[in-house]
Every structure is written in C-alpha cells, then in structure tokens.
C-alpha cells in the first residue's frame, strides 16, 4: 500500500510538472469604448485619430486545457512609435448569466471607464473556464505624428503560470478585436475656428460636448448662391449625437437673415436644422419653425455670426438651439 501511495504521488507530481502549452483561446466577444472608437465588425475595431485621449477594449479568453492556469497579464503588441499604446490591463473571472433563449436577453459586458493605467491582479482559471480582459490604451498627441508608425495593435502576448511552474507566454491574434486606425494627416492637427452652440430640450447638448476631431465648423457656398454651415458633432453623456445645420438660401454677405411666423425685414430667409443620431436610418432631421441668423464677420476664408431658432421635434414638441457660429469657408 505504501508503494502504491508513493507511486500515485509521483504520478500526480509528474502530472503537475507536465507543461501546458498554448492553453488560451480568444472567444467571440468584443467590447470597445472611447472617443476614438467609430465601430466594430468581423474585421476589427475602427478607430479615428483623437489626439491625447484614451480608449478601452474588452475580450474574453478561455482556458482550453485540462489544468488550472493562473493568468498573469495580457500585453498588446504594438510598434514603439505607434499612435496607440497600451497603458493598463484588468483581469476578472468571466461567468455571465445564461440566456434561456425564449426571449430577448439584455447585453452583458464588463468594460469600465476610466481607461487608465493599471496593473492586473493574477486570476486563476479552471479548465474550460473564462476570464474577462480589459485593455486600456492611450492615443498619442499631434507631437507624435511626424515619427508615428503605421498601424495599431492586432495581437496580444498572454503570460501565465501552471501550478508552481515558471512563467510562460502565448501569442494570440486579436481577431475581431484588433485595432484598425485611420492614420491621420497633418491637416487633422491644424487649428480651426470653433463655434459656441447650445441645444436645449430632449437632446440637450452643445459645443462643450464636442467630439474631438469630428468634422464640421465649416461653411459651403453653393452654385445656387446659398451658404450652408455645419457644426461639429456633439455627444453629451446619455444623449444621442447632434449636429446643427444653418442654411441661408440667398446669401448676400453681412447682415440679418430670418424666417419668422410674421413679416420681418431681412436680407433673406434662414433655416436651422438639428440632425440627431436616432431613428431607423441613424439620423433624424428636425427643422426650425422660426430662425434668426446674423452674419457679423466675413473674410475670404472665414465667416461668423450668431443664431437662435425654435426647432420642431417629435409630436410637434419644440426645443431651442442658439449660439455663436464660426466656420472655415469651402467651395463646391
């Protein structure tokens, strides 16, 4: 009996010492958040250049081995001069509630802000267990653009330990969580005019919630003689995206333009539209019932003024938009 006991013990020790190679696999789960995130799909997460901001992605790894594995860290592999650099990792056991399949189930996720610099605490994973991995990144500023390497992280290096063994590593592709960065041009870092606009009511927002590097604060003069202003995109917390359009159909330079319920002296009519990121097609256009737009300054390259408008929303409910608009002039 003693010999058998020793033999069994030796076998067990041998099993513990047997190396486990490549125990992890990435499952089909991806989350992403941050100003720079434009969307995601099978080919990865699309990013735009938003200098000096942070973003995060969430992935799930599965222990496909028959051994308990301790996950120590996950590092995104990127060029030293890449514009997107990892600055933190968090690890946590992943065991989401099951979905009975008889009804629509709410989405379950773990991505949390802020996407700051943080060191991971080791997590022990049972055979076929899963772990939630949040990777926090920072996007470098415009000063890094001249020497920036093309691309963004598309692979990770996973460090782990089996039992009391030495630290091992495994490299995995990020797959649908790889970062696809639209490389910026020098124009993305040029200073430009900025408007000061406020929107009240159900879509309350304003220039204080401007999405960094979003296009806008630009004017176009059409062949028909109209001036069209487009603001940048505003995204307040828990609100949809909003953009303001001003249209002066008969632009005649500096002065007052207005469209009011009653007669009013003006250089021409004015229309204000709030474009809100809701609806079946992604954007809903709400038009003004009354609008006053002034043009106070006009140069060869810029135009500025003020405006106020009453805009008709859903079910004829009205809300206000107002402020100072400034734009770079473009031609069509």
Shape: elongated
Q: What is the correct CATH architecture of the largest domain?
A: Sandwich
Alpha-carbon Rg, integer: 28 Å
Percent in helix: under 10%
The class by helix and strand makeup works out as mainly beta
| Total domains | 2
Strand ordering within the main sheet: 14-15-16-18-19-20-21
Would you mind describing this structure in some detail?
It is a single chain. The chain folds into 2 domains: 20-96 and 108-181, Immunoglobulin-like, CATH 2.60.40; 191-331, no CATH class. The protein has 1 helix and 21 strands. It has one helix at 2-17; strands spanning 24-34, 37-41, 44-47, 53-63, 69-77, 84-93, 123-125, 130-139, 155-162, 168-173, 179-181, 196-199, 205-206, 218-221, 227-230, 242-248, 255-259, 271-276, 284-298, 302-312, 318-331. The strands form 4 sheets. It has a 7-stranded mixed barrel with strand order 14-15-16-18-19-20-21. It has a 4-stranded antiparallel sheet with strand order 1-4-8-6, with no helix packed on it. It has a 4-stranded antiparallel sheet with strand order 7-5-9-10, with no helix packed on it. β12 and β13 (205-206) form a beta hairpin. The chain is elongated, with a radius of gyration of 28 Å. The relative contact order is 0.14.
Keywords:
elongated, mainly beta, Immunoglobulin-like, single chain, seven-stranded mixed beta barrel
Helix-strand blueprint:
Blueprint: H1 2-17, E1 24-34, E2 37-41, E3 44-47, E4 53-63, E5 69-77, E6 84-93, E7 123-125, E8 130-139, E9 155-162, E10 168-173, E11 179-181, E12 196-199, E13 205-206, E14 218-221, E15 227-230, E16 242-248, E17 255-259, E18 271-276, E19 284-298, E20 302-312, E21 318-331
Parallel strand pairs: 3-11, 14-21
Antiparallel strand pairs: 1-4, 2-3, 4-8, 5-7, 5-9, 6-8, 9-10, 12-13, 12-21, 14-15, 15-16, 16-18, 17-19, 18-19, 19-20, 20-21
